Each structure stands twice: as C-alpha cells, then as structure tokens.
Amino acid sequence: MEKLFLSAFLFLGCMLIASDSKVFVPPSDKDIPGGKLGSTIKYGKELLERFPYYLGQKGSIGQYGGNGLACQSCHLKAGTVPYGLNYFSVHARYPQYRGREGKILTLSQRINNCIERPLNGTKMPLQSDEMIAMVTYIKWMGEGIPTGGRVKGDTLKDIKIPIKAADSIRGKIVYDKYCMVCHQKDGQGVMKDDAIAYKYPPVWGFASYQPGSSMHRIIKAAKFIKNNMPLGVTYKSPVLTDEEAIDVAAYINDDRIHKRPKYEFVVVEYPHIEDKPIDYHKPPYADKFSQEQHKFGPFQPIYDWRKENGQYLGY
Questions:
Q1: CA Rg value for the chain
Q2: Which superfamily does 18-141 belong to?
Q3: Number of helices and strands in the chain (H, E)
Q4: Within a 10 A sphere around the Cβ of 72, how many other Cβ atoms?
Q5: Which of 12, 49, 65, 138 is placed for a possible disulfide with 56 were both Cys, Cβ 3.0 to 4.6 Å?
Q6: Roughly how many angstroms between the first and final C-alpha of the chain, as a whole number?
Q7: Which residues contact 220 (CB under 8 A, 6 or more apart)?
Q8: Distance of CA 107 to CAs 69, 90, 110, 114, 270, Å?
C-alpha cells in the first residue's frame, strides 16, 4: 500500500512539475489505442477537423452547422496547439459553470453551444455516435490530467491590456497588412473549391460567428490573434504587438462596420449579470461603465473597479 501511495504521489508530482516548467505536449496519432475505442477517437478527431463535410449544411451524416466553419477554425489543428484554444484539459474541467447560460453545462452541451453560436447551427443529439466520438477524442487528448486540473498552454496566453481604448481605424491598418491576404479585403475568407468548407474562414459577415461568441469579445480575440496569427505564427514568435492585436480584434468585431448573423433563438444571456466578462458587448452590467467602454475599452478602469468591489474579473 505504501509503495502504491508513493508511486501515485510521484506521478502527480511529476505532472505538476512538467506543467509548471513546460507547455503540455498532447498525444500524437500514433498513441491512439487499437480496437473500438481507438476507432471512436479517430472518428472524433476527423469530425472536429472536417465538421462541415460530416455535420455541416451539406453534411453526409447530418446537417447541424449553419455555415462552412469547422471546429478547428478556432480550435487549431484539432485542438492540439498550445495557446490556440486547444482541448488539452477541457474534459478534466467539465461539467463546468457557464456564466452565459447561468448554469452547469456538460462537455456535450458545451459542444452544442459552439455549434449553435460560432457555427450558427442547431444542437446535435447528445447521445449520437458523433457527439460521443468528439467527446471521446477530447477526453483521450487530456488522459491523465486529474479532474479540475490545468496544464501549461491550455489557456489563451495573456497579453498586456493597453491603457487606451481599442481603435478600429488603427485595427484596419493592421488587418490590411497582416490579415487580408487570407481573410480577404471583405473579410469573407476563401471557400474551398468544393464549396463545402473554408480554406480561410470569414471573420465577419453572415457566414461568420455570431455576436456573443467568444471570438466576438475583443480581449479574448486579441489573445488568440496575438499568439496564433497571421497563419503560421506561434506563441514563441508573435508578429503583432499587444496593442496591434487589440486594435485588429476591435476592427474585426466592430458591429458599427461589420454585420453578423443574428441568434435565432430567444435566450437570456448572462441571467446573472455579475457573471459578464469585462469585454462583453451587450448591457446591462453590474458596474457603472458604459456599453462603449465594455466593448472597446479602456478596460483597466473596469478591471480596477470590479476588483475593488469584489466583482467578476474575467475576460
């Protein structure tokens, strides 16, 4: 019994040391086990990589996605990229309270949440083979991470929030220089020749993600952009400054300039308004700041006020 306890202690200690000292390395395809479990894991990965072909508007299995976006339009390379909205510790952290819904969601419900919002679609059956396969793949990726655990690289990498407000005009300059080559001047991306999925996804317009999606929040989008864009950039060698990332996120998500699809269902977002992130675009708020400031900043005064008043500090 003492040996068993010691082995478990050393294993957890090694995991904690590894997660503190270096970025988590997910398993590779060669690590996928054989048999039915392995087949399900492979199927789940395929679905997450090629969602439009199986489950999009022209899907061969079902039609749930409402545009040509794939899961890995945001969760890069099937969720394997450090600081790239990966799946490293996702399974370990669900079920999880979600402020936007004001309740606990399972991982399957959260996947449906993504299908409804960024993919502008409709919910999949929770017990479908496809949902089970996607959850199984995500679980396999984080095998060994304890319940509630985190590993280094499983978040978006923090950036320094500028003192001044984000500026869409400056952001357009950044977009034209770095982003337009893939996402195009009109922001509509590049559809593949098969007209089913995108080579480069749209970043605004009616084929892009909905308002209220995580990527519609300027700080959240800026953290993703800074460490993953332009295509090929990693957190180790970013091209944009923090301020440029904030500004281009503001330009992309400026609803005064660019249109987005409307969420068709009647829902109450953030039923507990104190749960709203600092950069959420839609009032009411549990603080004294305007909708304009919540959308574009400056964000530091909101953060400081919330901290002083014991409110949610997330963004």
A1: 20
A2: Cytochrome c-like domain (1.10.760.10)
A3: 12, 4
A4: 20
A5: 65
A6: 45
A7: 156, 214, 277, 279, 315
A8: 20, 8, 5, 11, 19
**Phi and psi angles of residue 191, each rounded to the nearest 5 degrees, phi first:** -80, 145
Domain spans, the chain: 18-141, 168-252, 273-308
Digit-by-digit pLDDT tens for the chain (315 residues) are 443 333 343 344 444 434 446 999 999 999 999 999 999 999 999 999 999 999 999 999 999 999 999 999 999 999 999 999 999 999 999 999 999 999 999 999 999 999 999 999 999 999 999 999 999 999 999 999 999 999 999 999 999 999 999 999 999 999 999 999 999 999 999 999 999 999 999 999 999 999 989 999 999 999 999 999 999 999 999 999 999 999 999 999 999 999 999 876 657 889 999 999 999 999 999 999 999 999 999 999 999 999 999 998 886
User: In the structure encoding, which two tokens stand for residue 75, read together?
Assistant: 């969760």
Nearest to 122 by CA among 79, 62, 70: 62
Helices (H), 86-148: 107-116, 129-141
Strands 198-200 and 190-191, how do they pair?
antiparallel
Domain 168-252 falls under CATH 1.10.760.10? yes
pTM over 0.85: yes
